[in-house]
Amino acid sequence: MIDELYSAKLLSLAANLPHAGRLAAPDGSAEKTAKLCGSRVVVDVAVEGDRVVDFAQDVKACALGQASAAVLGAHVLGASLAEIEMARDAFRAMLKAGGEPPEGRFSDLSMLAPVKDYPARHASTLLAFEAAAAAVRQAMERTSRAGAA
């Protein structure tokens, strides 16, 4: 069972995190922490309208959290807030309620389906998508206020 959880593909993703670091001048940022294990993800975004045009992430998490962040980083540019939120919600349902994996640009999250059997790992695995959704929402609010000024 543990071999299924930590597959070679998952470990490879975790080791090659796209867009690692921070943006110099993000439109939005969010930090999320898993209290149980201490994993932490900080996401910075730049947006045009509701689409992510630049992205960076600082990830201090287990291999599962890093793999999830790698999927996010590989596919987030061009994504809308709705796409990120739908992926986050489907991902959460897959882990917590046996739902179907996310579809579309974030369908690679399906490889994390075995995490459903490890509830203590759910929070860290979801962090990157929770932080990304919060950062994009914040960015959209800031940029819409700036445009209205």
Description:
The chain is an alpha+beta fold and 149 residues long. It is 46% helix and 17% strand. It is built from 5 helices and 3 strands, in the order H-H-E-E-E-H-H-H. It has helices at 2-5, 8-15, 63-75, 81-97, 122-148, and strands at 28-33, 40-48, 51-60. Strands 1-2-3 form a 3-stranded antiparallel sheet. A hairpin with a 6-residue loop joins strand 1 (28-33) and strand 2 (40-48). Helix 2 crosses helix 3, helix 3 packs parallel to helix 5 and helix 4 packs antiparallel against helix 5. It is globular. The termini are far apart.
SSE topology:
Blueprint (H helix, E strand, L loop, with lengths): L1 H4 L2 H8 L12 E6 L6 E9 L2 E10 L2 H13 L5 H17 L24 H27 L1
Antiparallel strand pairs: 1-2, 2-3
Helix pairs in contact: 2-3, 3-5, 4-5
Short description:
With 149 residues, the protein is an alpha+beta fold. Helices cover 46% and strands 17% of the residues. The protein has helices at residues 2-5, 8-15, 63-75, 81-97, 122-148, and strands at 28-33, 40-48, 51-60.
Order of helices and strands: HHEEEHHH
What order do the strands of the largest sheet run in, or round the barrel if closed?
A: 1-2-3
Distance between the termini: 55 Å
What composes the largest sheet?
3 strands, antiparallel
Count of extended strands = 3
Rg, Cα atoms, Å = 15 Å
- Shape type: globular
Q: Beta-strand percentage?
A: 15-25%
